[in-house]
Amino acid sequence: MMVLAIPLAWLQLTREKIxxxxxxxxxxxAVILMLMQLGFRDALYExxxxxxxxxxxELVLISPQSNxxxxxxxxxxxxxxxxxxxxxxxxxxxxxxxxTFWKNPQTRRTxxxxxxxFDPKASPFDLTEVEQNLDQIRLEDVVLFDxxxxxxxxxxxxxxxxxxxxxxxxxxxxxxxxGLFTLGASFASDGNIFxxxxxxxxxxxxxxxxxxxxxxxxxxxxxxxxxxxxxxKAALPNDVVVLSKPEFIQFEKDYWATSTAIGFIFTLGTTMxxxxxxxxVYQILYTDVSDHLAExxxxxxxxxxxxxxxxxxxxxxxxxxxxxxxxxxxxxxGLYELTRNATALPxxxxxxxxxxxxxxxxxxxxxxxAIALRKVQAADPADIx
Amino acid sequence: xxxxxxxSIQALNHFFGSGxxxxxxxxxxxxxxxxxxxxxxxxxxxxxxxTLLTLIGALRSAQTGMGQELQGAPTDLLVQVRRxxxxxxxxxxxxxxxxxxxxxxxxxxxxxxxxxxxxxxRAVAILHGVGLGEWINVYPHELSGGQKQRVAIARALVSQPxxxxxxxxxxxxxxxxxxxxVALMQQLAKQQGCSVLIVTHDHRILDVxxxxxxxxxxxxxxxxxxxxxx
Lengths: 385, 230
Known about the structure:
The complex is a heterodimer of chains A (385) and B (230).
Chain A: H1 2-5, H2 8-15, H3 17-47, H4 50-54, E1 59-62, E2 75-76, H5 77-82, E3 89-103, E4 110-118, H6 128-132, H7 134-138, E5 142-146, H8 156-161, E6 167-170, E7 173-181, E8 192-196, H9 197-203, E9 211-212, E10 214-219, H10 225-235, E11 241-244, H11 245-258, H12 262-291, H13 293-301, H14 306-343, H15 351-377, H16 381-384
Parallel strand pairs in A: 4-8, 5-7
Antiparallel strand pairs in A: 1-10, 1-11, 2-9, 3-4, 3-10, 5-8, 6-7
Helix pairs in contact in A: 2-14, 3-12, 3-14, 3-15, 12-15, 14-15
Chain B: E1 5-16, E2 23-34, E3 38-42, H1 49-56, H2 75-82, E4 85-88, H3 100-106, H4 116-129, H5 145-157, E5 163-167, H6 175-192, E6 195-199, E7 211-216, E8 219-224
Parallel strand pairs in B: 3-6, 3-7, 4-5, 5-6
Antiparallel strand pairs in B: 1-2, 7-8
């Protein structure tokens, strides 16, 4: 009632236009910093699971000792074929993967690349180009190359598209590129090649067809994955883990979040943004309170309680946080697009992140406001009268 | 000759500091101000005038002798008392972010029984009363010193307080506007029947007073019956 009548907080903030703009710029900057840091973090996690998203299947089997795509432990393909006996399972596809060296055909330099081998009867990926080129990888020593691999592997896609015969050395074996697809580099791999399971064991002499890394399970239409998963867990010994596709994605993200410095680095960056913002808002509010100290003392002399003045300062803090968030958010959308174009990272604004940062901005301003309140206490009417 | 006293002080002592630094500011001060009376208190700087004013205005809690319940009063009670008193400061102390009218309304907002519309009407009316009818929606920085002080008077009187306290209200004004301002206070105070206590150094305004009191070294040393206009 008292607060609504004359919006003192709003009037005081908008009275000093330049100061308001500077304050909003500072808060917007902190908001951008937080949104960018959290965005980078999520984008990096997201980039590590592009392969997972493309998997054509509802459930996967992996070894309980596997950590991530970069550190997989093999298990017997027997376990995967066993699942065909479980109700609801329609088809399975064994996937083998390993890292080896790819020789850049132009510079003759080698670089580590991720090789995936699978049964060419059916593509385990939702990638039409892979589907169309299954015939190619049935041939001996023919692979499909990821055109979104890093440039260091050579301009393979350009050579292939020009109709050149692209032949190079992988793992010391001569292979030919029989087709292209688009997936993208991730933390684990700078580049990817796909081939048949047979070609895979040709490339990796230590591996056999019976030892696989991921068992992909496709379910019959309309069955509940959760129920089949329960059935599989009951039917299989505990030398394999059954995961749904979302669980498999989360499993990979968790690895990068908890076992690497990424989570820490970007959380630290976000914290820095928060602290910078808090300091800026505190400075603004402190100056504002100092400027109005005589006025606040006057209000106290007129019979206003300290709580009224506290409310004014906290309202100013809230208004600042929301007003500063809006331009920060808008600018960040542009920066996200800029980053997407420059780095091919899957950096998109999500609702939960925008909400998280809005809350952080509000907390930031309220914390600064609370510190600035001590200055309000100093507005003693007995001293100014 | 029997208007009741709205301010009554008996044997008021006041100290600043504590321990060895404790210093007595007011000594055995007693006075009464009757309803509708305009009293001017003069005295040299540091004599304790302002301290007495802040005690009467409930800006500090009294230590001894404040005949009323204000002795060592809790903040909440002080706040209640403050709402019944109008203040006029040496510097006008208007809120820069508010218009003249909003400044006046601020003084009504502590009284929850006054609606927003009433508050606006009363503020506009009293601004007309102080001759600022054309300056209602103007910000303080656009007003002259005298005009600002008139807004401050309007703010002090709009809630129709029983007591108005003014601390050097003319200090920042030239002779003409200073006298206008005090004459206005006198006129409004008489209309509303409220008592006014003015602390001042300014001898040019003594003529408005019904009674003069003089403070020296913390003692109300002399009480002149009536001011003699120059």
